[in-house]
Amino acid sequence: MSLGARLRQYRTARNYTLDVLVERMGGLVSKQALSKYEHDRATPRPTVLIALAKALDVKASQLIAEPRYQFELVAYRALASLPKKEQATIESMVQLELERRLTLMDKLGITPEYPFVEPQEITRDVREAEHAAGELRHAWNLGGAPIASVVDALESKGVHLIDVDTDRAFDGLAIIARDGAGERIACGAAARREMARARQRMNHAHELGHLAMRVAEGVDGEAAARRFAGAFLYPAEAVVVDFGARRNRVTADELLGAKKRWGMSVQGVLYRLRDLQIIDEASYKWWCMFINRAGWRTEEPGDEPREHSTWVDTYAHRAAAEGLIARETLAEYIPAISNRTAPEDIDRRALLKMPLAERRAYMRAQAEAHAAEYNAMIDHVWLDADLGEWDREHE
Length: 395
Hints:
- This protein has three domains: 1-66, lambda repressor-like DNA-binding domains (434 Repressor (Amino-terminal Domain), Orthogonal Bundle), CATH 1.10.260; 120-294, no CATH class; 311-393, no CATH class.
- By secondary structure, the chain is an alpha/beta fold.
- It is globular.
- It has helices at residues 3-13, 18-24, 31-38, 46-55, 60-64, 84-107, 128-139, 150-156, 197-212, 221-233, 236-243, 252-262, 266-275, 281-294, 311-321, 327-333, 348-353, 356-384, 387-393; strands at 70-77, 120-122, 159-164, 172-178, 184-192, 213-215.
């Protein structure tokens, strides 16, 4: 990737126009000059390159370094309806975020492992996605019970989950990373940040379907991914246990109960009932009309807060603790800590000169500021602790 392409990638990921970038650089160069840089018709001199990096909140080395990974965008949903500028922003942001995570893993000496040996083949009909979902649940030892956290289940297997901040009608995107030899080494699923838990889980499972399956030409890939997502979250055997093999009618209480147990939306549960022919098309359409009238299409009863990933926090803190990244780099991964004072940054002499009450108040404020960070780290610290070493010291 050329310097120009890299520059354009970072600019679009930040959602900056050329005019905005000129303004952020204090008018150091013109819009026309930036356009020439991005199209490799001119090369910025070192002082301009540094100013560009600062305006884009990156290091100059990140702009000139050749990327180690190649990215393949596997599937979009509702992205085609977005303006091209918005599409480019989402594409660039997702690629850069996955690249950033792979770079962090490399610093930690962690070799990424692609979570799928071979995609499940869908050759004739979307109903084959039921089997593909069951095979993946079996391979990942998920059993037939509800998945407590889809985020944890996917991330523990190496699927990176990336949040996208947008108010647009964007649901999801799947991405594959390849090394210099073209081998698949990592993958991710991106979804819009602001959504209820049930919809978030369905979106992640949908993109997982795109990654886990290879759909033959002539088979509707989106329908197959939707069927996969439903089966992954709510296996057919469990649906039949809950609702029976055939129903003339179902109640709202049953649908809401299934939503609570299986972490799916009411609309998702109804999809499962129709797909498995437990209810007929007429019953399904009646419920769709009811959902529209009741306003459940955008906000359902029993909606819960979304699931949250701790991947970046865990590994960025680990890299900082091991001295592999500086504190300012840690703040790039976790912006919330950028304004906190680290214990090692405190001027101890000045602290000791404070009156006792003032010193205690200062230390109390610092402890409260770091409490959330400490709580996020504590499980990781215990998991990484060498308890055998403690036993040896106390023999």
